[in-house]
Amino acid sequence: MTQPTPLPRALPAGAPAAGGMRFYLTTHKRHWVKLTDVPLFLKSEHFAAAAKLHPARGRYAVDSGGFSELQRHGRWTRSPRQYVEDLRRIWEHVGPYDWAAGQDWMCEDLIVHGGTAGPLTFVGTKLSVPEHQRRTVHNFLDLRSLAPALRIIPTLQGRTVAEYHACADLYESYGVDLRQEPTVGLGSVCRLQSTKQGAAIVTAMTARGYRLHGFGFKILGLERVGHLLASADSAAWSYHARKRPALPGHPHKNCANCIDYALRWRTRVLAAVPIHRQTLLTDRSAA
């Protein structure tokens, strides 16, 4: 009987590669971990629902699925203990991941107030931004207390530079030294990542000495601030593919679930980022 991979004793193994940025290809297809060794970003819920898990060929990180949880329910339906158990199973069967996101509370207007965006309906939490920040920080403290070895990262939330500073200060008030964390998530920037406001937020948090992961950064955002990030991820390839015909020789209607398309898109993303800013965008196995 195969023995499970032991859990790590500390966080440093999940640290970003020195001097560059790691780019994770986001996918909803959990079996891709056995098909490619490029860094992947996958939702914990997709692993949790699987009867069989495949060992990963390369690096990967775990998304908590917070956007979907809050979009659909306006709250978290999984307890911290349930989430920790999911992460333990992923670690033991898929292999050591770089890090896992916490059960944070995004601060986009649609998440807070509710509404519709395309086919999605947001129920809204009807809570304030400070309350979202408080719950984000408290959840991180709970998860770190429950499983200090599971490489769960703190995430900053807000909408303005001042609000992100307030969230960082809240972590610090609880004794969390974000400068010592290998990775600090930067949430609620997906729709801001290519704007001047998004750049100002990234610049301000980087100036505090944090090694940031940018959730949902696309080409324009990477061109603007990619050189300031420790890592980033994007699932834009799937939306991009959904609007276009399938690749030649592919039998499906479109390539929104296709690894060939995703890897080609990744190559185009990396090529679009200025050379002096790419550094370790193509990193696969460097520690």
From TrEMBL:
This is DeoxyPurine in DNA protein A domain-containing protein. Residues 22-285 form the DeoxyPurine in DNA protein A domain.
